[in-house]
Amino acid sequence: MGPLRPPHAPRMAATPDSLFPSGGDLDSSQLQMEPDEVDTLREGEDPADRMHPFLAIYDLQPLKMHPLVFAPGVPITAQVVGTERYTSGSKVGTCTLYSVRLTHGAFTWTTKKKFRHFQELHRDLLRHKVLMTLLPLARFGVAHPPAREAAADREIPSLPRVGPEGSTRHASSKQKYLENYLNRLLTMSFYRNYHAMTEFLEVSRLSFIPDLGSKGLEGVIRKRSGGHRVPGLTCCGRDQVCYRWSKRWLVVKDSFLLYMCLETGSISFVQLFDPGFEVQVGKRSTEARYGVRIDTSHRSLILKCGSYRQARWWGQEITELAQGPGRDFIQLHRHDSYAPPRPATLARWFVNGAGYFAAVADAILQAQEEIFITDWWLSPEIYLKRPAHSDDWRLDIMLKKKAEEGVRVSVLLFKEVELALGINSGYSKRALMLLHPNIKVMRHPDQVTLWAHHEKLLVVDQVVAFLGGWTSPTAAGMTYTTDSLTSGTPLNLLPHSLDAHLVPLQSFQPPTLGLDCPGTPDLSQNRFFWLGKDYSNLIVKDWVQLDRPFEDFIDRETTPRMPWRDIGVAVHGLPARDLARHFIQRWNFTKTTKAKYKIPMYPYLLPKSTSTADQLPFTLPGGQCATVQVLRSVDRWSAGTLESSILNAYLHTIRESQHFLYIENQFFISCSDGRTVLNKVGDEIVDRILKAHKLGQCFRVYVLLPLLPGFEGDITTGGGNSIQAILHFTYRTLCRGEYSILHRLKAAMGTAWRDYMSICGLRTHGELGGHPVSELIYIHSKMLIADDRTVIIGSANINDRSLLGKRDSELAVLIEDTEMEPSLMDGAEYQAGRFALSLRKHCFSVILGADARPDLDLRDPVCDDFFQLWQNTAESNANIYEQIFRCLPSNATRSLRALREYVAVESLATVSPPLATSELTQVQGHLVHFPLKFLEDESLLPPLGSKEGVMPLEVWT
């Protein structure tokens, strides 16, 4: 009922002006509702169960469309907790700000309002009620709650009609009036969900999502365009004609801020807090009256407020939010990483592909919200579990099923220079994007031609993350055993362990599928692990026609498959959040910098709060507790910021190691000369060995490298320019030239270097076409283990491309054990970390063939007996392989002439297969010495007239 009319006042016709009051007439009884319009608040339920799911960030609506902002059935309460009086420059003179504390479930926030804001809210709500009275409610989609309340409960106390600047002396009573007024309105969904009320309360669809952290700060602001720190995205001028002001809804959370378009509700920009974070207030810093400037490494965002007091309030609140739970991201941490060490983290290692991709498949099945994948190369048709009898475990089919369930899949691929690299990322993008609208794929970059996005990462629900050396997944990366050579091992003959020796070749003719028919072949009778291009030997022939994944491209009858060795890791909780944040940073950076991705079809991604990272809906079995720190190499071209924490962690770990280093890596190009090669990993190894030699310490360094670089080339004629270029820089690091490791060690200690360092590769053998065959095991791992307590696993090679930060983008994790178990070190009792020790012992077991040597003790990697056993095994295996297969590379071929003479002699495997097979029984494991004298008399740099020769040397280093 409205205010009482004087007894002799004339009754006026209802006009628009008379329906909508103005001024200070704020009788709240005007807002009285009928019983069926009153919302019923439910009791006895856990409010957290009714909060909005994280996927709500992908379904935002215009703010004036009355979206469901509050959780149904969860009360909202208001309390006016204080007032601030200040002198205004306006005609009003003295103003009062009311601090209103609001609570909705576990969310609590404070907003500051003047009395005129209550007046404006009152008028807006009254207009809303009148319009709903005059027009059909169904047109506005207003639902009538089933419950009714007593009339007495619906009475609303009236507000004082004079503003707080009037003569009344009862300020506390006015606070109570305002509090009761708000609380009564907040019990009615008709008013509570109206956009004027949500704007007054400073809430939106993003306010009450637990995984986004606290409520944060929200409100309507004006923001200035530009400010991006990426060339080409901002105007170089400073005049007003160079920018524009736009009205937006700003949301500030604990580790990022965003603003949304008021008309569409879509997120227009996301700014992650980082070490460049700074908030400044005032015209001097913002070039705007009542301005707030928020700086990060990516952008300088300028906001405009209604008053200097409001600007100070916003600046203070944003700073406090960033220095709360988000403080981890506004400072650099150990090794200058963006992420701090995370204690008590569940981590699990993987050696080779069977376990890794099976765990990836199981994690994808658990996905409820998001799947992030970033990769150097991705094959959509890869089978994650083998042997495949249906398409249930095929990656693209699995992603499609999850997308149909509502999971959002975001894939970020490296966009290669097609003339130089044939990974066909365009096909991968098309194949995935056609599956479902919930699958989004972006490629980056367009302009950088020398460097690559080389990291490999898969994150599920920002809860569990996988990373490592696998190009996850490609045909080569799907390796089940390091010694599997033949065309496809039959299921009924495959040893259960997947690590045993090979059985004879079985004929296999996979179906032919072209671009017009990319589906799944008939797998009902399949008994093989490697279908189509899964069967590969990248030195014999590089991959071609990747849009025909099930077509063979090498002859299975004559060419052995090259085994592939890799190391990976899965982490849970906070490190998974950190890795997801890296992906989100790169995704949003790509969306911002590439015009084709600025459309709403490609959404901005939001990082989950670290405050909920301990809530793990699922975990991978076999995890071990350790401290984990995420490391990376990124540059302004790749992620908008510069970081080289992987290099820093390598150098520090080597420098601080006490007993041994075990390194597996695809490349080993180091030893800085200040010009061609800049990283100092090799220099630190030299310094550490020299220190041990000076102090008389027992210290070992184990290095495992692929025997040949992974480029197509005929090694019998020298291998081609690409292979020779990588060999040149590898040998320059190891043993050739004044900067090499062995040259410097020999100068200091002569032949005693052999007591400290072992450089090896891996090789295996099998049977093909009735003849024994051998092939190197391609080491693609990127791993370092120090002292059985510290492990680095990731995608970074030991070269300048991966480690400097300014070139390729990379990811890694530094894992430090906190749970110890008894072991041995140099003959003495030693507390070794469970994660590092179990990983190192597994690697050594496979490499040394421990299954056939039950008396082999792998606990002590430093003692003389073990080191001598390692060296003897490598030498014996290398000699046997050379006698039987005349393998390449070989120390016997120091020049191209010697190489031609060497390959002209038939091998024992060709002349007498039975005798060769008998001799091969003496091979133990896969370890062989790396041939340090191969082609040492030749210059291996590419000729200047070749295409490889005209490329900058930085491409190879």
TrEMBL record:
Gene3D superfamilies: Endonuclease Chain A, Phox-like domain, Pleckstrin-homology domain (PH domain)/Phosphotyrosine-binding domain (PTB). InterPro entries: PH-like_dom_sf, PLD-like_dom, PLipase_D/transphosphatidylase, PLipase_D_euk, PLipase_D_fam, PX_dom, PX_dom_sf. It is found in: Endomembrane system. Keywords: Hydrolase, Lipid degradation, Lipid metabolism, Lipoprotein, Repeat. One of its GO terms (molecular function) is phospholipase D activity. GO terms for cellular component: endomembrane system. Residues 1-46, 149-171 are annotated as: Disordered. Residues 76-207 form the PX domain. It holds the Pfam family PLDc_2. PROSITE patterns: PLD (PS50035), PX (PS50195). It comes from the Eukaryota. Residues 449-469, 775-802 form the PLD phosphodiesterase domain. Its main location: membrane. It catalyses: a 1,2-diacyl-sn-glycero-3-phosphocholine + H2O = a 1,2-diacyl-sn-glycero-3-phosphate + choline + H(+). Its EC number is 3.1.4.4. It is a lipid-anchor. GO terms for biological process: intracellular signal transduction; phosphatidic acid biosynthetic process; phospholipid catabolic process; regulation of vesicle-mediated transport. Belongs to the phospholipase D family. This is Phospholipase. It comes from Nyctereutes procyonoides (Raccoon dog).
